[in-house]
UniProtKB/TrEMBL annotation:
Organism field: Paenibacillus spiritus
Gene3D superfamilies according to UniProt: P-loop containing nucleotide triphosphate hydrolases
SMART domains associated with the record: AAA
A single GO molecular function term of this UniProt record: ATP hydrolysis activity
This protein's UniProt keywords: ATP-binding, Nucleotide-binding, Transport
Pfam family, one: ABC_tran
PROSITE patterns to which the protein is assigned, alphabetical: ABC_TRANSPORTER_1, ABC_TRANSPORTER_2
Protein name according to UniProt: ATP-binding cassette domain-containing protein
Occurrences of domain ABC transporter (ranges): 17-257
Length: 348
C-alpha cells in the first residue's frame, strides 16, 4: 500500500448565491439560494514514502481543498483517502501524529507567546520525547536560524521569520509526511532559499514525504521530482519533472563566442523558419532555437564551418515556462512528443 492513497475523491461545496447590496442580503435571508461548487472531481493519486511531489494548478483549481482533505480538516463528499494507512478525517488524532502541515497564509503558533514556548507546547501536545525535541531544536535552530526570534511572540515576527518558525513547528514531531501549502509566499530570495534547503534536507536525510502546493514555480524546480497538475478539480497531468523537462522544454538559447566575425550569420539557418541569430558585438552570437526543429550540435556544426568557436553555453528554460503554457491551455503534457530534430539527433 502507498503512503498516501486517494481514489475517486470528490468535494462539493455549497455556496450561497446572493445579489449585491443590502436588498440582496435581505432577499437571501428570506429565500436563501445556493449553488454547488465541485472543487475536486474524482481524483486518484498514489504517493510513496519519501517522494517529493509538487501539486500545482491555477487559482481555484482545488489544491488547498485536496490538501485539507488529506490533513483531515475537510470531510470528502465522496471517495477514499488513506494516509499512513488510516482515514484522515475519521482518525484525526492518529493522522495528526504522522503529518506536519504548513499553510503559508496561516500560522499554527500561538500569537501572544514566545516562539520557544509555542514549540514547547507542541512538544507536549505531540508527546515528543525530550531527546528527540532537543536534537530537532538544535538542528532546526541551525538550519533555519531560529535563534534571532525564539524569544519573540509570533505576532512580532516578520513574514520570513514566521514561516521559518512554522516549518520548525510542523516538523518537530518528525512526521512522515509534510504538506506545504505556499511555504515561500511573499518571502525574499534569501529566506526562500533557506527554506527550500531545509525542506530538501528533511526529505533527503529523514525520508520525509513532501507534498507541496505553490505558485512559485522555482520551488518546484528546486524541491520536487514529481509534478501533479490539477485544473478545475481534475488531475490533468501526473509524471516525473525531469521527463516533462526533457520532453517539453523546447526553446533553448545557445551563446557562442567566436574567434572571428561571421558576415550575415542568419544565412546559415535560412532553412529553419524563425531562427534568427542575434549579434552581441562582432564576436558573440545568441541563437534562440526550438530543439524539436534543430539540435544544438547542428547549430555549432554550421557555425564552426564559418568561424572558430572559442566557447559556448546553452540556456535551458525552467519548468516555469512549461507550466505557464499548460495553464494558458497552450500545451498538453500528455501529447506524444515529436520524434526527430534537424541534424538527425534523437530527441530523448
Ligand atoms: N469553504 C468553501 N466554501 C465554498 N467554496 C469553497 C470553499 N473552499 C474552497 N472553495 C471553492 O473551491 C474551489 C477550489 O478552491 P481551492 O482553495 O481548493 O483552490 P486552490 O487551487 O487552492 O486555489 P489558490 O491557488 O487560489 O489557493 C474554488 O472555486 C473555491 O472558491
Amino acid at each position: 500500500m502507498s503512503q498516501i492513497e486517494v481514489s475517486g475523491l470528490n468535494k462539493v461545496f455549497r455556496q450561497a448565491v446572493k445579489e449585491p447590496g443590502l436588498s440582496g442580503a435581505l432577499k437571501h435571508l428570506i429565500r436563501p439560494q445556493y449553488a454547488d461548487k465541485h472543487a475536486v472531481k474524482g481524483i486518484d493519486l498514489k504517493i510513496e514514502e519519501g517522494e517529493s511531489v509538487a501539486y500545482v494548478g491555477p487559482n481555484g483549481a482545488g489544491k488547498s481543498t485536496t490538501i485539507k482533505m488529506m490533513c483531515g480538516v475537510l470531510v470528502p463528499t465522496s471517495g477514499q483517502i488513506r494516509v499512513n494507512g488510516i482515514d484522515p478525517y475519521r482518525q484525526r488524532m492518529e493522522n495528526a501524529a504522522g503529518i506536519g502541515a504548513v499553510f503559508g497564509q496561516r500560522t499554527q503558533l500561538w500569537w501572544d507567546i514566545p516562539v520557544l514556548e509555542s514549540l514547547n507546547l507542541l512538544k507536549d501536545i505531540y508527546e515528543v520525547p525530550s531527546g528527540d525535541f532537543n536534537r530537532n531544536m538544535k538542528a532546526f535552530t541551525e538550519l533555519l536560524e531560529l535563534d534571532e526570534f525564539l524569544h519573540l511572540s509570533a505576532r512580532k515576527l516578520s513574514l520570513g521569520q514566521r514561516m521559518r518558525a512554522d516549518l520548525a513547528a510542523a516538523l518537530l514531531h518528525d512526521p512522515r509526511i509534510v504538506y506545504l501549502d505556499e511555504p515561500t509566499i511573499g518571502l525574499d530570495v534569501s529566506v526562500k532559499l533557506r527554506i527550500r534547503s531545509f525542506i530538501k534536507q528533511m526529505n533527503r536525510e529523514k525520508g520525509t514525504t513532501v507534498m507541496l502546493t505553490t505558485h512559485d514555480l522555482g520551488d518546484i524546480e528546486d524541491l520536487c521530482e514529481r509534478l501533479v497538475i490539477i485544473d478545475r478539480g481534475v488531475i490533468i497531468f501526473d509524471g516525473r519533472l525531469k521527463e516533462v523537462k526533457d520532453a517539453f522544454a523546447r526553446e533553448r538559447t545557445i551563446h557562442l563566442e567566436l574567434a572571428s566575425p561571421i558576415p550575415d550569420p542568419g544565412r546559415l539557418f535560412r532553412d529553419i523558419p524563425g531562427l534568427a541569430p542575434e549579434e552581441d558585438g562582432p564576436l558573440r552570437l545568441a541563437i534562440c532555437f526550438d530543439r524539436f526543429r534543430i539540435t544544438a550540435s547542428e547549430i555549432v556544426k554550421r557555425v564552426i564551418a564559418c568561424a572558430e568557436v572559442i566557447d559556448f553555453h546553452i540556456d535551458e528554460p525552467g519548468i516555469e515556462q512549461i507550466i505557464r503554457q499548460v495553464y494558458e491551455g497552450k500545451l498538453d503534457l500528455n501529447l506524444p512528443e515529436p520524434a526527430y530534430a534537424a541534424g538527425g539527433d534523437r530527441l530523448k
